[in-house]
Amino acid sequence: MQSMTHPASTIALAATLRDHFTRVVLPLWRGPGFNTALKLPYEAVSAERPEPLPAQRYRAMACARQLFVFSQAGDAVHAEVLFDSLVHTFQDTRHGGWFYSVDAQGAPLDSTKDLYTHAFIVFACAEYAGHSGNRDALDVVHRTSALIQSHFAADDDLLNAALTADFAGVTGTPIQNPLMHLTEAWLSARHATRDSAFDAPLRRLASAVARHFVHAPTGCIAELPIGSEDNRLEPGHQFEWFWLVKQAGALFEGSGLDESLTRAFSFAQQYGVDPQTGGVCASLDETGGIKDATQRIWAQTEYLRALASHGDAAVLAALPRQIELFRQRFLRPQGWFECKTAAGEVARADMPSTTPYHLATAYGALPA
């Protein structure tokens, strides 16, 4: 979006968020949040002092998210360390693909083949390759994308959420979140590689999501396939999908997702955002009733990103106030608040290594 479409005050407010990220968040994960022996980011840092929580595991997805963050930030040295660690620590040389996690000593812990993890490896390596030109990272993007299509395939162009270590058994059937992040990953890979090979898989995936997950009355993309018991609608994911569909542009024409997500944005904003505090709740039922009132920081960042990319001037006008509400409610001098209650009390005190990805993607979409 062109900065000329935004008032100077909005640009200045966005700059305060980026400044906090550069001064506080990035140094936290280069320093105390990084295990220099294993060359991996710790899972979380204490809210009280800049030190990691005791390590029980390290996830490939967390390493991949940090690789994205430092690639986007232009820290080529730290990004290269993270990429090398990702490949050497989490790659399953026996069966192919990637481990979900390793233990505190760096040995394989959970060898499940997880679609969410594989999607983030594609996404992060595409971003890293785009910034660094690293051919090995491009190879990871293409190899992992091919593996996803061949091994995770389910009925009607959907993909299973989890498989056994040897890919032989399905342990998780299709759910929304990994499919969304695979969409994100392939859009990023398409941009980084300029390779049209990602177009057809993206179109198939978008159409499959539209057929199986769109809640027709609201346009929202549900967490479980439509008709599943105790399904839910997450406002944060409506905002996230809204952004992705905007990025896809004409690629998703014919899927119906653009029209659906325009309605989903309005539904999520009406029922999922507290008009006083700007806080975005965790989940709604299919009528707009609140199922989980917890306000997680990632959902707030997705609302900012969706607002910033919305084509309606009246919607866009809410952005400066929302930036300031977010800054006051979720940022603090030492970092951020991961979760709050609707009343504003801290519901989770530590700061996970996965959250800077959400901050980076949101701030990257705000006007500069």
TrEMBL record:
Pfam families hit by this protein: GlcNAc_2-epim
Organism whose genome encodes this protein: Paraburkholderia fungorum
Keyword annotations of the record: Isomerase
Cited InterPro entries: 6-hairpin_glycosidase_sf, 6hp_glycosidase-like_sf, AGE/CE
Stated name of the protein: AGE family epimerase/isomerase
Domain of life from the UniProt record: Bacteria
GO molecular function, one term: isomerase activity
KW Isomerase (keyword) present: yes
A GO biological process held by the record: carbohydrate metabolic process
Family: Belongs to the N-acylglucosamine 2-epimerase family.
